Amino acid sequence: MAVVNQKGGVGKTTTAINLAAALAEHEQRVLLIDMDPQGNASTGLGVRRDDREQSTYHVLTDGLSIDDAVRPTRVRGLYILPSHPDLAAAELEIGTADGRTRRLSDAMEAATAGFDYVLIDCPPSLNLLTLNALTAARSIIVPLQCEFFALEGLSQLLKTVEMAKAGINPKLAIDGVVLTMYDKRNRLSAQVADDVRRHLGRAVFETVIPRNVRIAEAPSFAEPVTTYDSASQGAKAYRRLAREILRKHAQRKK
Ligand code: ADP
Ligand code: MG
Description:
Blueprint: E1 2-3, H1 12-24, E2 30-34, H2 40-44, H3 56-62, H4 66-69, E3 71-72, E4 78-81, H5 87-94, H6 103-110, E5 117-121, H7 128-136, E6 139-145, H8 154-166, E7 173-182, H9 187-200, E8 204-210, H10 213-217, H11 225-228, H12 233-253
Parallel strand pairs: 1-5, 1-6, 2-4, 2-5, 6-7, 7-8
Antiparallel strand pairs: 3-4
Helix pairs in contact: 1-12, 3-5, 6-7
Residues 8-14, 40, 124, 180-181, 209, 211-212, 215-216, 234 line the site of adenosine-5'-diphosphate.
């Protein structure tokens, strides 16, 4: 599942980390791939900045195998493929090479380590890194922040999804849009949520992620919110989202 939205600060990385951790609680082996040069998902799960010599950058540009780059986290069942700041230059390095959108997908096919779920945390742009993620993914999750311009840019994102489908990934599905940073004391949050549901209907997950300070604090302790404060509203919300996704996928299989 690629977690994608070209806007920054909408909750992609937060959703990638916490959804991955919540899925791992279901006895699933889960891999989080950090495709953002900023590496917030890597930092948030405890990978030090000076310990990133085996990263998505090396997988995409040097042919490093995913098996050799994946490492465990402190959360049982959750693994991470960290990013590297040089990933920002990967686009230039592989920009015109053949199969440039397929680098991640090829590396994933070549990997032998088995995972039940792979989440890809995308950078805040519709660049070659995001296209690699969309080419490798079976489905996408789109976090939308409950603020005024939430829907802005969505049509551009959907065009990019169509591009990946027209390429080699015709089965790419949209798991759904997840509303993030919902503030029940703020009328704008409720208005935006209503508006988004009116426009997108069943494409919007029932689960809404509330604004919750525990969610914001957890990364500085290198933990997902599900272990940092297991009883918090944030942890509960991400567990609900995980259950909703497991249900959806079970139905899709049938
Ligand atoms: P993106 O990856 O889309 O750029 P992030 O996941 O990094 O967005 O989130 C942006 C900021 O908002 C971060 O500082 C994060 O801690 C904070 N944040 C995200 N979701 C929540 C939430 N539900 N409650 C409180 N803070 C949140
Ligand atoms: Mg991010």
